[in-house]
Every structure is written in C-alpha cells, then in structure tokens.
Amino acid sequence: MRECGRPMNPCFKSGPVPEKICTERVQPDKIPGLDSRRTGEAMSGYGKINLLGMLLLPAFATLAGIVMFGPRVDTMVSVFGMNTVPMLIGGLFSGLLLRSARKSGGVGRLIALWPTFIPAFIGISWYLGDALFPAEQDPGRVYLAGPQYLLVIAVLAGLCACTACAILRSRRAAA
Q1: Relative to the CA of 126, which of 11, 45, 82, 174 has its CA 20 to 30 Å away?
Q2: Range of 113's domain?
Q3: How much is the pTM?
C-alpha cells in the first residue's frame, strides 16, 4: 500500500491505495475550502448590485454627453471609457469587501457597496445637472475633470468602507 498518486489535487481522495492512482471522484460540496467559483454557483445578489452600480455611471454619463454634444460616436466612447475607470476601481474595492463579508458571515455587505455607489450617485447627479443646466463658458469641462474627481472619491470611499467594515466586524466578533 502507498499514498495516492495525486494527494495535492482536491478532486481526488487521498490515502492508502493499492499501487494505482486514485480514480474515485469526490463531490465538490465535500471538499473543504472549495468556494462557489469552482462549483458554478451564480453571483450573489450584492455582487449583481455592485455590477449594476459599476455600469450605471458610464451609461448615464454617456446619455448626458449625448444630450450635451449630440450623438457623436467618438464622444460617447471616450465619455464611457473615462467614466469606467473610476467605477472599476470602486467595483474592485466593493468586490474585495463583499468577498471578505461572505467569509465573515455577511457582516458589512451594505457598507461594502459604498465604493461603487457613492461615486456613481455623485457622478450621475453631476453629469445630469450639467446636461440640464449647462455652463455658459466651457460646457464640456465636466466630462474631462469629472472622472478624475470620481476616481479620488472612489478611492476615499473604498478606504472608508474598509475601515467601517473592519470596525463592524471587530465589534461583532467581540460581542
């Protein structure tokens, strides 16, 4: 008897077997540490909300750009792309916080969405306000400066959400 030929692979049973490689498969729900990404489980509701928040700002900014400048493809692509960057940063923060919230029993899931929704709300209101009430001089300045400010807001909201989640989890663990 010897150890199984593949002891490091979690899909195979390990243990003493007679001189052959293990062929019996273990069910994915029986493997400790195997998460939902490998088992094909659907995205959580909070993950879908995070994805929706990441797409809302670029979509609304593009619609406001159409109202402001007309339906020009180059303008729509650049406005959508520039506003996608801060939302990807905020979505990354939110995704990491949602993952840690899932590991800690769901504590802080709504706080984890702050880095996505705070910049999205500020940006949407800013772009729609500028589209409805444009500035007399230099009406397009918002579309160049906005993503830079939103990036700073996304990072600050992410750091605040990380701190708030850590405080909430430590208080919950102490209780």
Answers
A1: 45
A2: 43-174
A3: 0.71
34 Cβ contact partners less than 8 Å away, ≥ 6 residues apart: 10, 28
25 φ/ψ angles, rounded to the nearest 5 degrees = -90, 145
Phi, psi for residue 12 in degrees, rounded to 5: -115, 145
Query: Do 104 and 92 share a structural domain?
Result: yes
Contact 127, 64 (CB under 8 A): yes
For residue 53, give every residue at least 6 positions away whose Cβ sits within 8 Å of its Cβ, in sequence order, or none.
87, 90, 91, 94, 113, 116, 117, 120
pLDDT tens per residue, range 62-115: 999 898 888 999 989 999 999 999 999 999 999 999 999 888 888 889 999 999
Residues contacting residue 6 through CB under 8 Å, at least 6 positions apart = 12, 14, 21, 22
Quick count: other Cβ atoms within 10 Å of Cβ 111? 19
Number of structural domains the chain divides into: 2
What backbone torsions phi and psi does residue 127 show, to the nearest 5 degrees? -70, -40
Q: Report which DSSP code applies to 17.
A: E
Q: How far is CA 55 from CA 25, 152, 154, in A?
A: 40, 18, 14
* Same domain assignment for residues 35 and 58: no
The whole-angstrom separation of Cα 117 and Cα 98 is 14
